[in-house]
Design goal:
By secondary structure, the chain is an alpha+beta fold. It is built from 16 helices and 33 strands. It has five domains: about 250 residues, Rossmann fold (3-Layer(aba) Sandwich); about 100 residues, Elongation Factor Tu (Ef-tu), domain 3 (Beta Barrel); about 70 residues, Alpha-Beta Plaits, CATH 3.30.70.870; about 110 residues, Ribosomal Protein S5, domain 2, CATH 3.30.230.10; about 80 residues, Alpha-Beta Plaits. It has a seven-stranded mixed β-sheet with strand order 2-3-1-4-5-9-6, sandwiched between helices. Strands 15-20-12-13-19 form a five-stranded antiparallel β-sheet. Helix 12 crosses helix 13. The longest helix has 21 residues.
């Protein structure tokens, strides 16, 4: 059994933007506490956490990695997450395993796009938050950065310590009422800090208001409560590579970060989970990875209830067959030391389980779901085909492994175009996966922009559309007559088939055949070969032949009647519209806005970030975004970044619709000629 209790556990995720120093901070935490005997260095490519070859070659984290350290008798589980916007999936998934998100901000770069995004995600998910301003040796004009943090995230963000001696140390503003700092005034910061903390406890607030002072020692338990509630977000300072402020940060995490007992409480369905080591085992998988050395699949599980042992029988979701983990592991970077048991609040890895991210693991009768944070829908896509025709099955198998590990990566075959399409957050995301596929599986592919997933629908209605299918051959004939009405369905409601025949105009056994034929046509489309959505068909009349009527006859009759009706109902093409968020230098805002206007984009807002950056939001047709990565890079000199998520579908403008229809017609004619 572990030598610590649930109350002794602190689970933190290091989040924030790329190059803020999250991995360097995790390396420093490991070294300062003696968990490792060498300080890892990202630049020297010998970090304990960025150990994958792809991470070393790209110089950035592309997946989350775990470590554990001990400070002041507390076990601190650290999840180091990627900061590049393209790899936000593993960063968001890590929030499911922790109580506290520690957002690392570079003192030189300031607030960046993923700073804001991960702070918001952590708040939405109900986690406590801390902010670490790193690289304080390079920038001592930090008062403006604190002001920017408070302006963007609120005045619940208050410094808990300050740099001293030009970034060579830090001074505790919680215990110290006066002292010397590189900027600001310790006494002023101390007062603001105490006032913010006492707001979390009415009795202490009254004492403070009546006396004008309060002993910080009385506030120990209140700080964790305030952090967990989100009413207090400590700001702390470090220089991770110089190991400045790292020991102090760990002590504050040990003393004040909420334990699993104090932080966000999870529920299994509607039932709150009791963190009882003697209770029934409940856990949740929040990370999957394959060990690059052995290719063994590991499931990383946050234990919520019960005590998990190597010989425990565990069930995955609603499965009825139990599995035994065999061995339990703590993750220490690339190393996997084995442990005997894991208690509530702990994080443990198990090998060779067939799990997915978000799966609930339990002891037999606790099936249900535990909330996961919300992931962005991957909208950047590439169509791929193996360079070697014989590799098709191998490519599909490799892609399946990546879809298991990454909640923001999807690979599927488009039923309309037949293309194998991969979807991710951005170009870097997909290129990284293809690079790893080549490295680990020796598989190479060609890529091209995929076809846009248009949809077809109608805006008008029609009644009494009749079609009779009659076929006479030497043997048995075919006969089926149907009469239908067609009207639009509510957007997003899909297809609806209503049987309104009274009596036996069409035998009961053939009415599903009409529905089947129409559904087949929905997949093929009518206008330009794209799937039909949001239509309501009413079967109102028809006729059956006592000998020649067959299932296939009514399928054909239903399909042909639908095609006629569809073209009489003012058909339109629908195109996907994405919510676009672009982060650019302030002096490029005008150029970006002009470019978006040329793409039929509609601006929805603009936010200025401290540090000379602006965030432009808008809605743009997905069809206009195929070259956006290269265009944005060209306009901003590589300084811009963007993300996009599906918003909705809307009608294509008439002139654009005609071009799409003509192109689809030409492609069908070329395909027929080729055959």
């Amino acid at each position: 059994m572990p030598s610590y209790t649930t109350a002794d556990i602190r689970n933190i995720a290091l989040v924030g933007h790329q190059s803020a120093g999250k991995t360097s901070l995790a390396d420093a935490m490991m070294h300062v506490t003696g968990a490792v005997n060498r300080l890892g260095d990202v630049n020297a490519k010998n970090s304990h956490l960025d150990f994958m070859e792809e991470e070393k070659s790209r110089g950035c984290s592309i997946d989350s990695h775990l470590a554990f350290v001990t400070a002041k008798g507390k076990t601190i589980n650290v999840v180091d997450t990627p900061g590049a916007p393209d790899f936000i999936g593993p960063a968001i998934a890590s929030l499911a395993g922790v109580e506290t998100a520690v957002c690392v901000i570079s003192a030189t770069a300031g607030i960046e796009v993923n700073t804001r995004r991960m702070m918001e995600r952590a708040k939405e998910f109900g986690l406590g938050r801390m902010i670490v301003i790193n690289k304080i040796d390079a920038n001592l004009e930090l008062d403006a950065l604190i002001g920017g943090i408070q302006e963007l995230f609120g005045h619940e963000c208050q410094p808990m310590n300050l740099p001293t001696n030009k970034g060579a140390g830090v001074i505790d503003c919680f215990l110290n009422k006066e002292g010397t700092a590189d900027f600001s005034d310790v006494a002023t910061v101390h007062t603001a800090l105490i006032e913010r903390i006492v707001e979390a406890d009415e009795a202490l607030m009254e004492e403070y208001l009546s006396t004008g002072d309060i002993d910080p020692e009385k506030l120990g338990g209140v700080v964790a409560k305030a952090i967990a509630a989100g009413s207090f977000v400590p700001i702390l300072f470090t220089n991770a590579r110089g190991e400045v402020g790292v020991k102090e940060l760990l002590e504050i995490i040990a003393d004040f970060a909420p334990s699993p007992l104090e932080g966000k409480q999870r529920s299994l369905g509607e039932t709150p989970i009791q963190l009882d080591p003697a209770g029934k085992f409940v856990g949740q998988v929040f990370k999957l990875f394959a060990d690059p050395r052995s290719n063994i699949k590991y499931s990383v599980c946050r234990v919520h209830s019960g005590t998990l042992k190597a010989d425990s029988s565990i069930y995955i979701g609603a499965e009825r067959k139990a599995q035994r983990p065999g061995s339990l592991y703590k993750l220490q970077g690339a190393e996997h030391p084995e442990i005997d048991a894991a208690i509530p609040g702990d994080i443990v890895a198990m090998a060779k389980l067939d799990t997915s991210i978000g799966d609930v693991l339990h002891s037999g009768d606790e099936a249900g779901t535990i909330e996961m944070p919300k992931f962005p829908h991957p909208m950047y896509a590439l169509a791929i085909e193996p360079k070697s025709r014989g590799d098709a099955d191998k490519v599909s198998g490799a892609l399946h492994k990546f879809t298991e590990e990454d909640p923001c990566f999807i690979a599927d075959r488009d039923p309309q175009t037949g293309e194998l399409v991969i979807h991710g957050i951005g170009d870097l995301h997909l290129r990284s996966i293809l690079s790893r596929m080549q490295q680990y599986f020796k598989l190479e592919v060609n890529t091209k922009p995929p076809k846009v997933p248009y949809r077809e629908t109608i805006t008008g209605s029609v009644k009494d559309i009749e079609y009779t299918h009659k076929k006479q051959t030497g043997g048995a004939g075919q006969f089926g007559r149907v009469v239908i009405a067609l009207e639009p369905n509510e957007r997003g409601k899909g297809y609806e088939f209503i049987d309104e025949i009274f009596g036996g105009a069409i035998d009961l056994s053939f009415r599903p055949s009409v529905d089947k034929g129409i559904q087949a046509q929905l997949k093929e489309g009518v206008l330009a070969g794209y799937p039909v959505v949001d239509v309501k068909v009413r079967l109102t009349d028809g006729k059956t032949h006592p000998v020649d009527s067959k299932d296939i006859a009514f399928q054909i009759a239903g399909r042909e009647a639908f095609k006629i009706a569809f073209m009489q109902c003012k058909p339109v093409l629908l195109e996907p519209i994405v919510n676009l968020e672009v982060t650019v230098p302030n002096d490029k805002v005008g150029d970006i806005q002009g470019d978006l206007a040329s793409r039929r984009g509609r601006p929805t807002g603009q936010t200025m970030l401290p540090g000379g950056l602006s965030i432009i939001t808008g809605q743009v047709p997905l069809a206009e975004m195929s070259d956006y990565h290269s265009r944005l890079s060209s306009i901003t000199g590589g300084q811009g970044s963007y993300t996009m998520e599906l918003s909705h579908y809307e009608a294509v403008p008439g002139n654009v619709q005609q071009q799409i229809i003509e192109k689809a017609k030409k492609e069908r004619e070329e395909a027929r000629a080729a055959h």
